[in-house]
Amino acid sequence: MPSARNALQGKRLHFGEATLILVTAMLFTAASSAIAFATKVGCTTTEPGAKREWLFGGRYDVVPCYSDLFTMWHGRGLSEHVFPYIHGGITPDGNLFGGVVEYPVLSGLIMWFSALGADTDGEFLWHSLLVLAPFAFITTILLALLTRWWVLLWAATPPIALYALHNWELPVVCAAVAGIAVMAWGCSADPTTGVRRWSVRTTAIVAAIPLGIGFSLKIYPGLFVLPLMLYVLTRGEAADRRGADRPRALDWLGAGYVALSAIVTVAATQLPFMIAGFEGWKAAIDFQTKREANLSTNSIYYWGLRFLTGGETPAYASIVDVASPLLIIVSFAVACFLGWRAYQRDGVFPWLGVSAAMLAGFMVFHKVHSPQYTLWILPFFVLLRVRWWLIALYLLADLVLDLTIFHLLLNYSATTRTWVLVGVNFGVWVHAIVLLVLIVAFVNARPREPLASYLSGTLPPPGPLTRLAQADSSGAAAWLGSPTLANQQVTLRPLALADAEALGTVAGEPDLYQWTTGVPHDTDSALAWIRTALADPHRVAFAVLDADGRLVGSTSFYEVDEASRSLAIGYTFYGPATMGTAVNPAAKLLLCDYAFTVCDAVRVVWHTHVQNARSRAAIAKLGAVYEGELRKHRRFRGGWRTTAQYAIVDDDWPASRERLEDRLAPV
User: Fold this and answer.
1) Which parts of the chain sit beneath pLDDT 70?
2) What b-and-e string marks burial along 166-199, b requiring 16 or more CB atoms within 10 Å of the CB?
3) What is the rounded CA–CA span in Å between residue 170 and residue 160?
4) Long-range contact set of residues 323-326: C-beta below 8 Å, sequence gap at least 24
5) What pLDDT score does 244 carry?
6) What does the alpha-carbon distance between residue 147 and residue 562 come to, in Å, rounded to a whole number?
7) How many CB atoms are closer than 10 A to CB 337?
8) 515: alpha, beta or left, given left = phi > 0 and alpha = psi -120 to 50?
9) Is the peptide bond before 483 cis (omega within 30 degrees of 0)?
């Protein structure tokens, strides 16, 4: 019965911590989303057709007014509510028309849906918040379930506030995290059977669906299908293997099914637009291929290679057009190679780390790099055990970049302030260096708990607050409390650090305590003794006060075992003047009566050195029954002691209590 009760209590504690995490993370997400809206709403107009410059602001604005939402509203047919892609195209000079937007079809569809019913860019901003915020909350919920308190790295750091309404990144991030969550759920152990819910192959096939949806939102989640295929090819976690000592055939068919699942998902989302308006659908792709690595794209090429080629020359453009895709492919190959080496070493292909490494390679070598891309990589900081200083450095550089890049775009000339140029270069190059380091670091990073346990098909350990609560609930005080007990002879109250000075003066000559170790003889040793007593979760320590209220010693409940309804009484010492008086039997009467009648204990134990005749006689007078000797029971003065053990059980207590009361009765 106690074990069942403890199991139920553990479930309640786990549920309580999970609820606290979710509520806290959701509140932070709501606050970040509200800040994102508040910083952009002042940049909007209230008159239909009204339009401001694409970027405007004062010299001392922290962040000038800019959002891709506004440029899309005014320049991509959203204000006219034109259905995207179907009737549009791209001009020879690279301008989109007819409702075409430069993003994959599902992002364009979300933009069009957000614009419905809006007549101004201010209304469009509000509608976009209503559409995008749920994706932020879903991502928060998934990350909280996968990583517990680490979700606050997503919900409580600046990126959501900075970029939630800067572009349409939240749906694609949600799709990527959803794919990871599917893998976690499918690979996790069913708590009732201990068996994985789905096979590795089935789990990955289903997970490829949200990744395919993500591809049709912003491309990059589609990258993660390749490491997922390699994970299935190598048959997943070692715990799921049979005959791990023997070489196993690679699952080429399963890897193919994963690819097919992603392809079918992408086709289902893309084909309707390809059929209904191929030129408009293709125009979005053409726009991206024609984008140049200029100031607005903010890439390492613009801030590095440009100075070597003498500016944005034809040679510069040609080099970037070749180098960017080539370096991206190389980074993908490096990430997969490192993952394969990890598989050969550990027996498991680290698909999640390789996915993150591929994203890092894409971000650093792509010729377009926007600040809001931080939302792409942020979930991997949450999901993987990356060194904290890399995360902090990346987020710091991101904040500096966001606070300076728009000032630079407002005025990039000889009059540009030095702090703006320094801030932009700091942000760009720190990002680049950190991303290069992360290509390696991600592959070698273990998932955080409970995600790591889910992916390996084992039950996760409890969260930190649950562990603390379980420690408290299993401690002595959870059963016995911290009572103050009193009768005519003594008062027992919880021992406190403030008792150190008085307790240090209680003991007399050390020779009086030849069978007891650790008895304090000054304030410092008493302070250490009290701290040790209070730190022991299976002990409840008391200060013993005589009838005049003077502290005359200490005693404790220890080895408290609620499940067995058993405890011991010990760590007892008194001053010389108190020995042999009514203090000790009076104290034992209070302790035993409390244990047996209030706490329903069934057994109270005493331990003493087998050669301590005085202590053994005192214990016997309490009515305790001698149960034998425990050889080499405890360390004692550099060696071991044999302990004599005595006990009173609940059946004995009425007679023992009567004996103690008779001893204390007035003569």
Assistant:
1) 1-14, 54, 57-60, 238-248, 412-416, 467, 469-474, 508-515, 667
2) bbbbbbbbbbbbbbbbbbbbbbbbeeeeeebebb
3) 9
4) 323/365, 324/293, 324/365, 324/366, 324/367
5) 45
6) 33
7) 12
8) alpha
9) no
Degrees (nearest 5) of the Cα angle 130, 131, 135? 110
* Chain segment 209-247, per-residue pLDDT in tens: 999 999 999 999 999 999 999 999 999 875 444 444 445
* pLDDT value for 474: 65
Largest CA distance in the chain: 115
Burial (CB count within 10 angstroms: exposed 0-12, middle 13-18, buried 19+), residue 647:
middle
Average pLDDT of the chain to the nearest whole number:
89
| Look-up of token digits 């096979």 | 199
For 445-580, where are the alpha helices, taking DSSP H only?
451-455, 464-474, 476-480, 500-503, 523-535
Nearest to 515 by CA among 587, 613, 585, 605: 613
Beta-carbon count within 10 A of 5 CB: 11
Give phi and psi for 514, each to the nearest 5.
-70, -20
Q: Which two structure tokens, joined as six digits, stand for 270?
A: 């893309």
The dihedral formed by the CA atoms of 572, 576, 580 and 585, expressed in degrees to the nearest 10: -30
Task: Work out the burial of residue 326: count CB atoms within 10 Å of its CB; fewer than 13 is exposed, 13-18 middle, 19 or more buried.
Answer: exposed
Give residue-wise pLDDT tens across range 36-58: 999 999 888 888 877 777 677 66
Residues 6+ apart with CB under 8 A from 385: 445, 446, 447, 448
Give pTM, 2 decimals: 0.77
Identify any residues that bridge with 541 across adjacent strands, giving them in sequence order. 556
Closest alpha carbon to 370 in 155, 66, 591, 88: 66
The span from the CA of 373 to the CA of 390, in Å, is: 17
Provide the pLDDT for residue 472: 65
pLDDT tens column, 575-602: 888 888 899 999 999 999 999 999 999 9
613 φ/ψ sector (left φ>0, alpha ψ -120 to 50, else beta): alpha
Asked if residues 553 and 576 have their Cβ atoms less than 8 Å apart, the reply is: no
Alpha helix stretches (DSSP H) within 305-463:
306-308, 314-346, 351-365, 374-383, 388-410, 418-444, 451-455
Rounded Cα distance between 533 and 555, Å, is 10
Find where tokens 């390492």 sit. Answer: 300
Q: Hey, what are 604's tokens?
A: 């109270």
Q: DSSP alpha helices (H): ranges in 149-236?
A: 152-155, 158-163, 170-187, 200-218, 225-233
Residues 292, 319: Cα–Cα separation, whole Å: 11
